[in-house]
Amino acid sequence: MDQPAAAMDSLLQALQVNIIPNQEYLLQGSVLDTAVQRVLHRLKGLCDNVESAPEQFSDYEACFSLGSPVTDQMQAQQQPPLFLRVIRKTSEPVDAGTPFQLRYIGNPELGDAKRPTLVRASFDIACSPTICDFLTEMGCQLKFEYTIRGYLFRKGRMKISVSKIFKINQEPISQSYLVELSVLAPSGHDSVAEDMRIFAEKLKPLVLLEKIDYKRLAQMGN
Fold it and tell me: Coiled-coil regions in this chain (predicted)?
């Protein structure tokens, strides 16, 4: 068996036994600029490595969509476009060798309404700097791009980010910070959702982390 085939077989076996983190458990909220320092202070006390400063990050993100070729409106609603995100670190130092990352995030699962977190498929793939050209050649369209800067905390397997989103011209899109609590885990590890709910309770009333209903937001936007 050649090396690529062996690697593919290993990947398929890993997926079958659920050892690859392919699902993201997520809670989201926001906090005004004027109150973000209190949230950072609370997180520093709750998270690991409390004696060191939180990790800072700065990323460029571009979102591409690959739409369905169907022209019927009803079929188009049943087959939503595929969204892919290209991410590149912009923290210093940045050079031609800075790696790119291709991220696929699926639609939220329609599981138990009582589940405390949103759950969606998530895959990250390292890629070359030509990824944007490749996606364009594949027929993908650039929907939007932005930079995101903020702080990253960790509590066990949980990741907590407090970040601000900027337009490409460095103008902030709002006067608030996005707060996200997430865990990447293999399929079926729903017990992490309860751990996240308990941690989110400790951040109240500074920030309310919720299971966002994206379909409802889309309907409100229409």
Answer: none
